[in-house]
Amino acid sequence: MGETENHQHHHHPPPPQVVAPPAAPPPNFALSRGPTWTPAEQLHQLQYCIHSNPSWPQALLLAFQHFIVNLGTTVLIASTMVPRMGGNHGDKARVIQVLLFMSGINTLLQTLIGSRLPTVMGVSFAYTLPLLSIINDYTDEAFGTEHDRFVRGIRTTQGSLIVASFVNIILGYSRAWGELTRFFTPIVMVPVVCLVGLGLFARGFPLLGNCVEIGLPMLILLIISQQYLKRVHSRAHLILERFALLICIGIVWAFAAILTVSGAYNNVKTATKLSCRTDRSYLMSSAPWIKIPYPFQWGTPIFRASHVFGMIGAALVSSAESTATFFAAARLSGATAPPAHVLSRSIGLQGIGMLLEGLFGSLVGTTASVENVGLLGLTHIGSRRVVQISTGFMIFFSIFGKFGAFFASIPLPIFAAIYCILLGIVAACGITFIQFANSNSMRNIYVLGVSLFLGLSIPQYFVMNTTGDGHGPVRTNAGWFNSILNTFFSSPATVAIIVGTVLDNTLEAKQVDDRGIPWWKPFQHSKGDARTEEFYSYPLRINEYIPSRFL
């Protein structure tokens, strides 16, 4: 606990608010008077905040935990997309390697010169719709083998990623994205951050339900060991609070392996076999021992205008989702809210990351991983160094394929059980932003309610009406227009940003302070709050060499 306490006396009080002298309090008819909590811009219940570091052995284990959590999403997206593109098990293993490699590189870049927050950059599901339309284009053409169709699809994806990346680079480094974020207030942040967690509900129990006998024990075991058993002994408290996730994965994975070997799944449906068996991913047999990802490994990129627009839509969606995730990450790592210039440079850097992904032949672009931010809240450790060490694991396991494949064969329902908890923590983190605004104002309740509901409801309509080949409900004659709109409105966080920002900035508030602006304003400017420099400045005095207009 020492760490966060040491930092407490650097903190400055919130900006003074001009308040009218209070009227005489009404007579209190009830006897109930509970305590009130003052709003806190930083969480003080963390054991390590953003720039304090646990001991090296602990940091390594925690970093490995981040790697495992990120691996689940990577395997999930590769397992759903590669077979549809016509790829075999070997292709799937290579795609997982490239995705991991790019995750490692992008996370390292973001933590060093991007947002400086402890966020892992993981694969983004926003790119699946444009990817499906690329797959769909190539299903009717005649190819010599299925593998040729796969390579053709991935080369087209590369071309689209390269072009779309410039949208993010321009938006970020021209400072335009930061200017847009100045319209955010605590009232907008509640639904946006909440839905970046809740919007992924399909990755929770629906995925767990594919194999209940593995997923449910994992969920129950994780809650009991991490929250209840830690009270047994002070030593157990530290170990279980920080590493219960790894311990539970080990136990349940072994249980799944025993069920597989004992023949429990010999006579069940193919779908159940895929979800439950530990040997069904065929990654161990097909992954190479050593393979370093290199640019253009699938061949030269193919540029097709019709597909670029869908990717541009996905790039904007992943920027919106990352921005929401950065706010949650700042909260759960004990930092203050990220200012506009930090958000700008992190989105610009995300564009550069996308460009690299296009060159290296990645399947999808990256976004800040919501699950890993949930992990900061679960372990109470928001240290930036832990996330930087986890990039070492990602890059190592992406080069030494057999070792990576070993962990990638953990059944997906185990990951789904973890997501049930981690995504919930991020969603709840969004709700805490309401402390800075007046939660008794009817206008605020209206803005919150409409943006929360539409943010869940509109994407649900789009998902339910999207056919298997990626055709969404928007079907005009202009294919590029369809791609952009279908991608936009399938993302809960993006819908919440649009609805929330518009409503909050156009409906007038009865009192200026109702929206929480006095708390919020200082953090939007680089010089607005003394702590901003402490959390978000570049490492190793790089900023002395950068022209001040870019800082």
Automatic annotation (TrEMBL):
GO terms for molecular function: transmembrane transporter activity. It is a multi-pass membrane protein. Keywords: Membrane, Transmembrane, Transmembrane helix. It is found in: Membrane. GO terms for cellular component: membrane. Residues 14-28 have a biased composition (Pro residues). InterPro entries: NCS2. The chain crosses the membrane at residues 63-83, 95-113, 119-138, 159-177, 183-202, 207-224, 244-265, 386-408, 414-433, 445-463, 483-503. Its main location: membrane. This is Nucleobase-ascorbate transporter 3. It comes from Gossypium stocksii.
